[in-house]
Design the sequence.
């Protein structure tokens, strides 16, 4: 019997993929539960995708306008300017989204946990955090590589609020240091 296709996410959870009939025809869905109808290979043109919170899906291969070096720059700068334990980045078709989570509680308040080392406590906290989108950099001009920056708003409906346009590096350097700080809400 052939081996089923599987994907392990950043938390170590293993996902399987199967084909189901949906409203728009056949759909490929991922599940942590192994089933008899799981696929032995991904369909041509499809790939696994993992969001910053570890949820796995099967999607058409992403044909992104974002260059690999732009994604690398965003990841390095955002982590450097905000905080390494706060940031995850995701590449979409024409945008880079930066996700963050609230800072971990002060470990001194959690320690000493009976029978738990500081490393075990940190690992546990890393598994339960929930990342939320905070900044978005959308490619505005493919030729000149000009991006538009947006921040998430939290008034009524959550939505993106336009901030400015410029080079990706300039925009990240301007806005990433405000992630998870009060000054973030003063960005207009």
Sequence:
């Amino acid at each position: 019997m052939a081996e089923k296709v599987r994907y392990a996410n950043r938390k170590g959870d293993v996902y399987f993929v199967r084909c189901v009939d949906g409203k728009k025809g056949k759909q490929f869905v991922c599940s942590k539960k192994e089933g008899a109808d799981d696929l032995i290979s991904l369909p041509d043109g499809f790939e696994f995708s993992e969001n910053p919170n570890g949820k796995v899906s099967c999607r058409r291969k992403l044909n992104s306008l974002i260059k690999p070096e732009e994604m690398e720059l965003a990841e390095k700068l955002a982590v450097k300017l905000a905080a390494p334990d706060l940031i995850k980045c995701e590449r979409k078709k024409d945008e880079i989204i930066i996700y963050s989570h609230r800072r971990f509680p002060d470990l001194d308040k959690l320690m000493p946990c009976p029978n738990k080392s500081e490393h075990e406590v940190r690992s546990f906290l890393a598994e339960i955090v929930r990342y939320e989108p905070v900044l978005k950099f959308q490619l505005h001009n493919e030729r000149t590589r000009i991006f538009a920056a947006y921040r998430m708003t939290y008034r009524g409906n959550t939505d993106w609020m336009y901030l400015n346009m410029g080079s990706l590096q300039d925009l990240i350097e301007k806005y990433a240091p405000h992630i998870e700080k009060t000054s973030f809400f003063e960005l207009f």
User: Anything to note?
Assistant: The CA atoms of residues 18 and 37 lie 6 Å apart. Residues 6-60 form one domain. The two ends are 58 Å apart (CA to CA). The beta strands are 6-8, 14-22, 25-31, 46-50, 56-60, 88-91, 95-100, 132-141, 146-153, 159-166.
